[in-house]
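DM from R.C. (forwarded with permission)

"hey, sorry to bug you on a friday — could you get me a structure for this? deadline for the figure draft is monday and I only need the backbone to look sensible"
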Amino acid sequence: MMYLPIIAALLATLALALARAFAGPTVFDRVLAVNTVGTGAMLLLAVLQFLTDRPGYTDLAIVYGLLNLVGTIAILKFLRVGDLGHGGDDGKEARR
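My reply, with the result:
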């Protein structure tokens, strides 16, 4: 089966990204590692869809990718602003 090396490489990538998430010296390294884990999981879902010939896994991969993107943006906004509910500039200077 020619897909076993692909699956093994994806699992190795996920393991290395998880190790980076735990050992990352800064919070931004950890956010990037978690984003990499989400992308790897999305790729694993796509490979699983191809192997089982079920189109529902593609939908799950797309939704998971969108949630991964929104989650990463929310985390980075929280780290920069300190509040997720901050809608805009109301005359006060944003914290930097």
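R.C.: lifesaver. The helical segments are 4-23, 27-52, 56-81.
me: no worries. The first helix runs from residue 4 to 23.
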